[in-house]
Amino acid sequence: MLRLDHQNQRAVALARYLERHLDLSALPPDLCLVLGGDGTMLRAIRDLGHGHTFLGLNLGRVGFLMNDIESQAAVVRLLAEGRYQVHDLPRLALQAWTEPQEQPDGGRRTEERVVNALALNDVFVERMTAQSCHLRVTIDGVSVVENLVCDGIIVATALGSTAYSVSAGGPACHALLQTIHVTPICPFSPRLIPIALPLTSRVSIEPLSRAQRPVRAVADGIGYQQVQRLEIGNSGLDVRLAYFEGHDFTATLFRKVLLG
Question: Who has the most CB within 10 Å: 42, 106, 156, 209?
Fold first, then answer.
């Protein structure tokens, strides 16, 4: 199975090469080859869900979720010989409750809606206006901050810690560690620092003053408007990512993120 970014001409060219030089039907039936960048990988996982193994071929910019390509011929050889290793990586589960909305014709307000989403990289809450967020943060039933004044907050997996979280000042983490990272975005008061938690932790976020300071939640790039409370934790629905022999997560972390 091939999934690719059709706007990426390099991805289109590689797909054509693979179709000519590789017997795709001989590959494991659950294997999905993803051609493009990290965004293409996240879309493929979101569309296909649990039950597939995703092997990414980096034709984007950073491609932290992907395999770098030495040559088209090398890709064919590695795939034909099955020279890759599969890793089970956790996804976060987001449960969010959205605010009831006024009907455009002034009729009865819509009912509160419950949103459920999965995220391989991260879930974050961010302000929807020029005003800062006011957030109540609870972790594993412990009230951490009663009123965090900030631009938002990020909850990331270890794999996703190298994306938005590290840009917001959080620590970059080895992809195979079983952790959840909580990173405030531009915290003003109090100066809450980023923290790393066990994968079993649950993070609850409640926006305060929601009418004046609305927020939205974003799970792996998909946004949900006007949320009034959120619960985030391990979903238990891991994603299988495949990497070619010789892939080194530590070397990739330094080369693409810390020293890139």
Answer: 156
